[in-house]
Design brief:
15 helices; 2 domains; alpha/beta; globular; eight-stranded parallel sheet
Length: about 375
């Protein structure tokens, strides 16, 4: 019996935007959804209770990092990722393919798998599609990803085709592995920014009848419009009864643009990484709390935000914390940015349900691209 499912609830009449519901043994997830990135079994500076309070129903963690430290078998002995990090809601685990292939000089790819050296201690490791499934079984995630070959762009077309074809063969091996009945496996679509290769990859991947489908290999050096063109090409070919996941994307504008093309799921380090760099999201763009103009600013980051940082502290205080390199500043910035992303996705879902998404998309483009919002 399958314990994972996806159901389409509502669709926008003027775009391909849609609202859906993912059901897992750890609760339901309403889509479109953004997943905070908890690479090392934690979203940096936050506890699971913080993420629950923000309204998140699913987060992403990484098979590569967890397997290397503290170890997937240790996490299994602790009851799996959910119990280990005390997160009661859904978890998606990335296969680690992107991390492995970003090591470049530290890895070698063969048909059997990927040989690489740990970024932590240099230990030699060899991962196969079968091993990646096993690791994620140990982690106990609700949605898993197969090992894929992700390459940087731009790249020779022959190399892109080779990677796309190998990713399909690795997917077949992953699907042949036994998994717990609650654990879904998504196929990953590759093919770079070549339409013919993307079409080949998506048609071959959906022929494998996976639980859902992820779009990989984008936001890795291509132009923004090239990314959106590939997303549109792929999304229109993925069956409507399967979740569509755009990996590693992106900014608030990226999210709403991709939702308009039919994407249901997202993850990205941008909100948390920007928080650590002092960059905060507000409607219409971003503000840099490190700038001197905020030194004596007694306003909150955003008067319309209900997060802890905005409800209790001033821009002047957050400016001081950043300048003093205090951890509290990073934590408060992270709380604000992720609260903004959670709210952004709720607003998108509401706009689709109310048949007002086209207007929402138009306003988002105007506010962000034209910089209407005034930060000072």
């Amino acid at each position: 019996m399958k314990l994972y499912s996806f159901h389409l609830i509502d669709s926008d009449k003027k775009t391909s935007a849609r609202v859906g519901r993912i059901t897992t043994v750890h609760g339901t997830v309403e889509t479109p959804v953004f997943m905070p990135v908890g690479t090392n079994a934690t979203v940096k500076t936050l506890g699971s209770e913080d993420l629950e309070a923000m309204g998140f129903t699913i987060l992403l963690s990484n098979a590569y990092h967890n397997a290397i430290r503290p170890g997937d078998e240790l996490i299994a002995r602790q009851g799996g990722l959910h119990q280990f990090m005390k997160w009661p809601r859904a978890i998606l685990t990335d296969s680690g393919g992107f991390q492995i292939f970003s090591l470049e000089s530290l890895r070698k790819v063969t048909e059997e798998g990927a040989m690489f050296r740990s970024h932590v201690d240099g230990t030699s490791m060899f991962w196969t599609p079968e091993k990646v499934v096993q690791i994620q079984t140990h982690l106990g995630s609700d949605i898993t990803m197969p090992l894929d070959e992700c390459i940087a762009l731009p790249q020779e077309e022959s190399k892109v085709r080779e990677a796309a074809e190998r990713t399909l063969r690795w997917l077949d091996r992953a699907l042949a592995q036994a998994r717990p009945p609650y654990q879904a496996l998504f196929g990953i679509i590759q093919g770079g920014i070549t339409p013919a290769l993307r079409k080949f990859s998506v048609l071959e991947t959906i022929a494998r009848n996976c639980d859902g489908y992820a779009i990989g290999g984008l936001s890795v050096g291509e132009e923004k419009q090239e990314m959106l063109d590939m997303v549109e090409l792929i999304a229109e070919k993925v069956p409507k009864d399967r979740a569509r996941y755009l990996m590693g994307v992106g900014t608030p504008l990226d999210l709403v643009e991709a939702v308009a093309l039919g994407i249901d799921m997202f993850d990205c380090v941008i909100p948390t990484r920007n928080a650590r760099n002092g960059t905060l999201f507000v409607d219409g763009g971003q503000l840099s709390i490190k700038r001197a103009e905020f030194k004596e600013d007694q306003r909150p980051i955003d008067p319309n935000c209900n997060c802890l940082a905005c409800g209790r502290y001033t821009r002047a205080y957050l400016h001081h914390l950043f300048r003093a390199n205090e951890i509290l500043g990073i934590r408060l910035n992270t709380i604000h940015n992720l609260t903004y992303y959670s709210s952004w996705m709720k607003r998108i879902r509401h706009a689709i349900k109310e048949d007002k998404f086209s207007e929402f998309l138009k306003q988002a483009r105007q506010n962000i691209l034209q910089g209407i919002h005034q930060n000072g």
